[in-house]
Amino acid sequence: MDTNTDYSSFDESISFINNKNYQEKYNEALNRSIQRKKRIREREIKIQKRNKALRSSALATVIAISVVVGTPKVNHQILVNKAIDYQKQQIAMMMSEGNQNYTEEQMLGLMDMLGDEKGIEMATNQNWQDYCRDNGYTEVTYVSDGGNYSTREPSIRVLRNYLEEEAIKRMKENTDENGDFVFPNLHDGGKQR
Amino acid sequence: MIDIETIILEDNNEYIITKRINDNNTEYLLLNNSSDPSVFCIRKIVVENKENYIEGLDSKEEFDRILNKIQE
Which residues of B touch A43 (CB under 8 A)? Predict the structure, then answer.
């Protein structure tokens, strides 16, 4: 796995799943950007500690809007591939940083990229556990310690596979008769339409 | 966890500085709402009396140009 990837230039696909109406978001962003009522001094910028996944998903959303606005028709297979690559990069990055376990926050970040607002529930729900069992991942362990959820290393592979398959499934189900990707409406808690 | 720059805009919402972009010798900021990252805007840094200010863009064309540059 390539862990030297530039994370600032990735994927438009994941955020397709997150947005119900990109044109509306584009218009809102345009209006906010042209807002000139008040100048703000640059020194009012504050430095805070934040989850890396949040920043990544935010950038992905903007890239998605940019791509869609500029390119009406998008090859969905390219998006699928990028989604998979990005998920692999995220996991590789976490592993390269020495994380042996996923924290709840990390899992939430990953799951958010699939548009599931109930990320940790999705990661721990019966579907995922069934997936692990059906694919022979019997070594999966799941630890809940005072609300801090974690899985052992083998589960990272399982989770990655699950994410990949879920991304492909969602992408394919959002393709019209011409093979073009159409914007999904997943504002029902991240479930497929 | 990483260091992230944030700023509160005129709508009193906190925005994360997700990316900085240089275009025609001007620095632009991609800002995402920290509560809802899909809410975003683009601002630019202007210098006036040796002070840096964050200011809105001038036109849709400027917005589109920087938005496209973000994905490069």
Answer: 52
**pTM score, two decimals?**
0.50
pLDDT tens track of chain A, all 193 residues? 333 333 333 333 333 434 446 677 888 899 999 987 778 888 888 888 776 666 666 776 676 666 666 543 334 444 444 444 555 555 555 555 555 455 555 555 554 444 443 333 444 444 555 555 555 443 333 433 344 333 333 344 555 555 556 655 655 565 556 555 454 433 333 333 3
Please name the amino acid found at residue A12.
Answer: E
Structure tokens given for A94: 């976490």
ipTM above 0.90, yes or no: yes
Q: Which residues of B44-72 are buried (b: 16+ CB within 10 A; e: fewer)?
A: beeeeeeebbbbbbeeeebbbebbebbbe
What residues have CB less than 8 Å from A96, skipping those under 6 apart? A3
Task: Give the C-alpha separation, A128 to A121, whole Å.
Answer: 10
**Is A151 an interface residue toward B (CB < 8 Å)?**
no
Nearest one of B49, B52, B57, B9 to B33, comparing CA atoms: B9
The domains of chain B are located at: 6-70
Mark yes or no for CB contact A42/B53 under 8 Å: yes
